[in-house]
What does this fold into?
Amino acid sequence: MTSMISRRYPFLLLILVLAVLACTCNTQDLLVPPTVASTAAVVSTTAVTRAATSVPPAVIVATPTALSDDVLTEVDAEDALLVNLYQRVNPAVVFVEVLVQQGETMVPLGSGSGFVIDTEGRIVTNNHVVEQADVIQITFADGSVAEAVVLGLDPYSDLAVIDVDTPADRLVPMELGDSDTLRVGQRVIAIGNPFGLAGTMTVGIVSALGRTLPADVAQSAGFFSNPDIIQTDAAINPGNSGGPLLDSRGRVVGVNSAIRSESGSNSGIGFAVPVNTVKRVVPSLIADGEYRYPYLGVTANPIFTLAELAGVVDLSVTKGVLVAEVTAGEPAALAGLRGGNRTVTVQGVPIRVGGDIITAIDGTRVQDFDELIAYLVRETEVGQTIVMAIVRGDEVLEISVVLGERP
It folds into this structure.
């Protein structure tokens, strides 16, 4: 009996050891030999096991480096400049409300902006803001209200001067700058009352110079243009009209006048009448109630430049003004200038050709009709004699013209 147990003991012990190993070990690990390949397999198995547990990856959040004191100082200086400018200039900007007679009562027609130019109560705004007014009500930045009367209107430049009877010590005139010194990219600031929101300031840049807008006038003699217009991306909306466009020193460089938009609100393209036009026109509006413009009496194609037409109609020059028509009895006609004698079609547009080409006025070259109008408005006056260089066929001529007055 004892010998039988002794013989079976090693066998039972072997079974017990195998059972314990089966419960505590991964058989796959035990059976894989420790080679390079098996190590990769173990890593792969471990990766699968970890993936199965869906442990989220670590997220590293980058913390921006703080700006240097020099940069922050510059930012603070920019902020201080704009804050100071607003505090100095805003008291000169006014809210213009226009009322019209309707039956026996006055009803609001519209509103705009304006700015004080002297201590005698004169305020500059847009012609289109006040031209239909029966009553003009002015609200100053301090909330005081006064009625204004029109001193002069100029629909060609879209400028007007109105006057309020207010004590001089309550008026803050604005300083007028020089729009001829403006450069594209220069910062400009608009202050006005968009949508009736008084004292709103916006900031932008000069986007372009020398734009031309159609004047708010159409006569039997033709349509007229307002030259040298400033284009800006400073936000201008309905109600900004008549308010100042300023440089960084708070000087007026333009009068906000129009926007280009399909929705009627700002789309990043605004226009301002240059302050040098204000300097030229406003004294006459104050003294005479109007401004007299020199008049030549020619029309030209506004769609194509001479360079675009030169290849089509075989022109000898590529810069200048191709005269389409000459108004009978007016200065250009009296001086012997000739208009077109035939019509050609260019890109589906009928164009009068064959007329004289104006290349210069008093020695100053003109590249297109906009430049011609700008020169006449800026440099000449009614009754002045100018000398025009023209190309007529193969000839280069000089013709003297005595300028008339716009009809």
Observations:
- The chain has three domains: 93-170, 179-283, 294-405.
- The chain has nine helices and 22 strands.
- The chain has a mean pLDDT of 84.
- The first strand starts at residue 93 and ends at 102.
